[in-house]
Amino acid sequence: MANNKEVFLSFRGGTRFQFTDHLYHALLRSGINTFRDDERVKSGDKLEPLLMKAIQNCKMAIVVLCEDYASSTWCLKELVKIIECHEKHGKQVLAIIYRVKPSDVWEQKGSYEKALAILEKREDPEKVKAWRLALSKIQKWFKVEDFSKAGDELMLTRWVLCTEDICYSIVDVL
C-alpha cells in the first residue's frame, strides 16, 4: 500500500470529499502516484506504521492545512514525520493553507490555538511541543499556497495543478 507512491497527501478528514479529493484525483490523472490514508489497509495492519512508512518512502509531501487540521493527532504526527524527513533527507514539501488564516497555522492562533490547548490537557507535553514546533516551521521552510479565502473546490484544484511554480515543484522531485 505505501510502496512506490510519489506524493504523500496529509489532510484533515473535513476536506476529504472536497478540495483534497479533487486534488488527489487531479494528481492521479496527471500521472502522479499519490498516497492518502483512505487506501485499503490490509486486515491486521496497524495504521500508524503504514503512514510513517508511506511518508518516508514518498518523494514529496503535500500538506493541506485547514481550520481543524491541528485538532487531529494523526495529522500532527504526520506533520512531525514530514518535517523530520525534510530536515534529514531534503524531502520536498508543499503546504496548502486552506480556508484558514495563514498566520493562525504557524503562530498557532485561532482554531490552532484552541485545538492545541485541548491537546495539551490530554497528551504528552513533549508531543505537543513537537507539534507546535512543526507548525511553526511551515512558513519558513516550505512553499506555501494560500487558499484562506477559497471558493470553488474544483477551480482551486485546477489552479494548484496548473500554476507553473507548483507544477515545477511537483515535477522537479518526481
UniProtKB/TrEMBL annotation:
Domain TIR: start-end pairs: 3-139
Reactions catalysed according to its record: NAD(+) + H2O = ADP-D-ribose + nicotinamide + H(+)
Enzyme class: hydrolase
The EC number(s) this enzyme carries: 3.2.2.6
This protein's record includes keyword tRNA processing: no
UniProt keyword annotations, A-Z: Hydrolase, NAD
Endpoints of the signal sequence: none
Keyword Transmembrane: no
InterPro entries for this protein: TIR_dom (IPR000157), Toll_tir_struct_dom_sf (IPR035897)
Gene3D superfamilies in the cross-refs: Toll/interleukin-1 receptor homology (TIR) domain
PANTHER family: TIR DOMAIN-CONTAINING PROTEIN, TMV RESISTANCE PROTEIN N-LIKE
Protein name per its UniProtKB record: ADP-ribosyl cyclase/cyclic ADP-ribose hydrolase
Organism annotation: Stylosanthes scabra
